[in-house]
Write a structure and sequence with these properties.
Blueprint: E1 11-15, E2 18-25, E3 30-36, E4 41-45, E5 50-57, E6 60-64, E7 67-71, E8 76-79, E9 85-88, E10 95-102
Antiparallel strand pairs: 1-2, 2-3, 3-10, 4-9, 5-8, 5-10, 6-7, 6-9
């Protein structure tokens, strides 16, 4: 068993205002914490990973395959692989949550 403390993991700023912390990584899936500052945008992208997640605090709007989905604390979601999606924090508070990816996913480099 691998046991990791969030505070001991490196947090990266994938794009301005979007902070990601890779947590546990197994052979079949990975867990990542996200912290998105007010007004920050996760740009539209897609990947071969299936993605499920949970919003812990704050709010924002996902756009998945062109359709908008407001998200707030307690909401969970599932995004199929290879489906274009983005997220904007349109509130005045940080947006925090957890994503699980299968297969495991490294921190993205959206700025390249």
């Amino acid at each position: 068993m691998e046991f990791l403390q969030h505070s001991a993991q490196e947090t990266v700023e994938a794009v301005e205002g979007v902070h990601l912390t890779q947590l546990a990584v197994g052979e079949e899936m990975s867990v990542q914490h996200f912290h998105i500052e007010p007004g920050a945008v996760v740009p539209e992208h897609s990947h071969h990973h299936e993605q499920v997640g949970y919003v812990m605090s704050g709010s924002g709007v996902f756009t998945v395959d062109g359709e908008e989905y407001p998200a707030s604390p307690g909401d969970s979601y599932a995004i199929d692989s290879n489906v274009p999606h983005s997220l904007v924090n349109d509130s005045e508070e940080p947006l925090d949550g957890i994503d699980v990816f299968a297969p495991p996913r490294a921190n993205p480099d959206w700025e390249d």
